[in-house]
Amino acid sequence: MRRKICAIGNSRGVSLPVEALEKLKLAVGSEVDVQVDEEHGRIVIEPVKPASYAEGVDEAFAAQVNDFIEQYKPALKKLAE
């Protein structure tokens, strides 16, 4: 999957295909580890092992809740005041 590096503020970023994220069960807000493999001249991005959920908690639902929280974080902070 060929991608282009884009500017994000003072940083640079690469968009990740939804299909790849779904296969690895990653969503907005998921943590990843970024390593530079100088020996092979590459950047390696690996998912951080997610916290395990209590028995009976659906992982897809938990991911949706995390997405919702991330999307509405400013509003939720205001409501918490």
How would you sum up this structure, described in words?
The strands form two sheets. This protein has a two-stranded antiparallel ribbon with strand order 1-2. Strands 3-4 form a two-stranded antiparallel ribbon. The protein is 33% helix and 25% strand. It is of the alpha+beta class and 81 residues long. A hairpin with a 2-residue loop joins strand 1 and strand 2. The longest helix is centred in the last third of the chain and has 13 residues, at 59-71. It has helices at 18-23, 59-71, 73-80, and strands at 5-8, 11-14, 32-37, 42-47. The chain contains three helices and four strands.
How large a portion of the residues is in β-strands, by DSSP E?
15-25%
Describe the strand arrangement of the main beta sheet, using strand numbers: 1-2
Overall mean pLDDT: 89
- The rough form would be described as extended
Give the secondary structure arrangement, pairings included.
Layout: E1 5-8, E2 11-14, H1 18-23, E3 32-37, E4 42-47, H2 59-71, H3 73-80
Features of this protein?
81 residues; alpha+beta; two-stranded antiparallel sheet; 3 helices; 33% helix; extended
